[in-house]
Design goal:
Layout lengths: L4 E2 L9 H10 L18 H18 L5 E6 L2 H13 L5 E6 L2 H10 L4 E6 L1 E3 L5 E3 L14 E3 L2 E2 L4 E2 L11 E4 L16 E5 L10 E6 L16 H6 L9 H17 L1 H21 L4 E2 L11 E6 L5 H10 L2 E2 L10 E4 L6 H18 L1
Parallel strand pairs: 1-15, 3-4, 3-7, 7-10, 10-11
Antiparallel strand pairs: 2-12, 5-6, 8-9, 11-12, 13-14, 14-16
Helix pairs in contact: 1-6, 2-6, 3-4, 6-7, 7-9
């Protein structure tokens, strides 16, 4: 069959070389005669694989030795609870920056576990453009337990490009949709967490990168499976981890290293985003209402000026093997998620289709 390009926001497409390797190893991994998903997570061969996956992630992100890397259950929403349970003591408050749907959801969940200061940094202009209050103007609390933010909002297509300055207050970031897409300075963060199903691997696995000095402060009511200290003490194996997802994540890390690492993929990601935004901005048929300086490079929403053509656009896109382009139900329109595994050829195919569709439907 012709190549299919999957623009789903998550679970998202995985790199084809990773899928082919996993397929080849599916029933006989490392000549064990068993699938990796059938092996004990405490067996020597599995623990060796798990350790290599962590080492590769540390190498890709230049994670310092004073940070623990945890392979957890629960997805991003699980971390919406785990973060305040581990970092928000009684009598303190946490600042939550809200710039879109997921940061708002994180703030709402955190309010179940302590005092939360919600800071809305989103601005809707009279001309319909959506922008953000600059980081320097955020009214942060200098005595906060931590500052939480989501650098990239997948639903809204909004990206905060600069790492916020918090003047010593631990910074917590939900990087589910941007981890490994461009280089970051891990030392600027207290905690980074990311659901795997966008740039890492399949759903069911969550990566947590936590600075060691933030361990050991969990609230008494914290479930053991959400306690960062417990996970760190047991090498993320306090109970059975999502073993197959961990294995696939390791293959993705190897694939990314073979491509030249995060610096190399960042150039590709920028080129993909530039290509798609150029088509949108150069057309009188499509539009994107996000302030250019805050446009996402991973999730690009766009709208047809004539929304009565939406269903036709989606149906014809699928006929051209361009899948999962329907926008989130909250915002409507279209959305192209172009994570690391999306090749530039997929974006070019989408741009070609968009141009042709516009010409035929004006």
């Amino acid at each position: 069959m012709s190549e299919v390009f999957n623009f789903c926001a998550g679970p998202a497409m995985l790199p084809a070389p990773v899928m082919l390797k996993a397929q080849a190893e599916f029933i006989n991994w490392n000549n064990t005669g068993s699938s990796v998903m059938e092996l004990s997570h405490r067996s020597g061969i599995y623990m060796e694989m798990a350790a290599q996956a962590e080492a590769d992630l540390r190498d890709l992100m230049a994670i310092p030795d004073n940070y623990k890397v945890l392979f957890c259950h629960g997805g991003g929403r699980g971390q919406f609870s785990a973060v305040p349970l581990n970092l928000l003591p009684q009598g303190k408050s946490a600042d939550y920056i809200v710039n879109g749907s997921w940061s708002k959801a994180a703030a709402v969940e955190a309010q179940n576990f302590g005092n939360v200061n919600v800071i809305n940094v989103r601005e809707e202009h009279d001309d319909g453009e959506t922008s953000l209050i600059p980081n320097a103007k955020w009214p942060l609390n200098s005595d906060a337990a931590y500052v939480h933010y989501c650098p990239n909002e997948t639903v809204d297509g909004i990206e905060i490009n600069e790492i916020p300055e918090t003047n010593g207050v631990p910074l917590v970031a939900d990087m589910s949709s941007t981890i490994l897409s461009h280089e970051i300075d891990v030392t600027k963060f207290g905690v980074i967490y990311a659901g795997a199903q966008k740039n890492i691997g399949p759903s069911g696995l969550t990566i947590v990168i936590v600075r060691e000095d933030l361990l050991g402060n969990a609230q008494l009511a914290t479930p053991c499976i959400m306690n960062y200290q417990t996970s760190a003490n047991n090498d993320s194996m306090y109970n059975t981890p999502p073993t197959y997802a961990w294995y696939l994540a390791g293959l993705v890390f190897q694939w990314l290293k073979e491509l030249g690492g995060v610096k190399a993929i960042a150039k590709v990601n920028q080129a993909k985003a530039d290509l798609l935004y150029k088509e949108i901005d150069g057309s009188d048929f499509y539009n994107n209402n996000i302030d250019e300086q805050y446009r996402s490079k991973m999730n690009i929403p766009f709208w047809l000026n004539d929304e009565s053509l939406n269903d036709k656009f989606l149906a014809e896109a699928e006929q051209h093997n361009l899948m999962a382009l329907k926008g989130h139900r909250i915002v409507g329109g279209m959305r192209a998620s172009i994570y690391n595994a999306m090749p530039i050829e997929g974006v070019q195919a989408l741009v070609n289709f968009m141009h042709k569709f516009a010409q035929e439907n004006k």
